[in-house]
Amino acid sequence: MNRWGRARGADDGSDTARADQLGSLLIEVGRGNDDAFAQLYDEMSPRVHGLVLRVVRDPSQAEEVTQEVLVDVWRTAARFDPARGSASAWVLTLAHRRAVDRVRSAQAATVRDQRASVPEATAYDAVVDEVAGRLEHQQVRRCLRGLTDVQREAITLAYYGGQTYREVAATLDLALPTVKTRMRDGLIRLRDCLGVGR
Fold first, then answer.
1. Residue 9 in 3-state DSSP?
2. Is the C-alpha dihedral spanning 21, 26, 27, 33 positive or negative?
């Protein structure tokens, strides 16, 4: 006896009768019989869902694919040929193919996104940074030209040359308070020219 209470090798004909019934239902579905489809749906949807879930491993995706498969069954049932196999095998083959297609499609989309998104973002950011830097540089140079010679030289030596106030004063041969005043006035004019703090 096996665990279902049947003697090993015994066939009470119920499996064959069930297969014949599913085949008849599928043939009727192919003829447009709504009641036959409802019965076939009740019989096969749990099995289709179980198979699809094992393949896609995502419950919400499995529900979507199951519905797609059963719609396919409704639309293509007329293609079923009982001489080539059972109705159950025909439906489950459709389910397996659809589930595998969904997995492949999801994997391809993930790979495509990974390949495309990061380099594009990096390239875009690099271009934006370069353009912004060039525009900023041009604007700063234009604003520097509007300063007096002493203001421009003092600011250039301090901010681009890295010199201290004392070193700038020594380089320009000016008194330290004069350098500080000229730099302060020059920075105010630069700020106004660049529109900083507006």
1. coil
2. positive
Distance (Å, whole) CA 158 – CA 91:
80
Q: Which residues contact 191 (CB under 8 A, 6 or more apart)?
A: 197
H or E element at residue 25 = helix 14-30
| 90 Ramachandran zone, left/alpha/beta (phi>0; psi -120 to 50) | alpha
Number of H helices, E strands in the chain: 7, 0
| pLDDT > 80? residue 88 | yes
- Residue pair 139/177 in contact by the 8 Å Cβ criterion: no
Whole-number pLDDT of residue 10: 44
- Asked if pLDDT for residue 193 goes beyond 90, the answer is no
What secondary structure letter does DSSP report for 156?
Answer: I
- Residue 49 has a CB neighbour count (10 Å cut-off) of 19
DSSP secondary structure letter of residue 2: -
Reduced to 3 DSSP states, what percent helix, strand and coil does the chain have, rounded to the nearest 5? Answer: 80, 0, 20
Domains (range + CATH), the chain: 15-113 (1.10.1740.10), 146-194 (1.10.10.10)
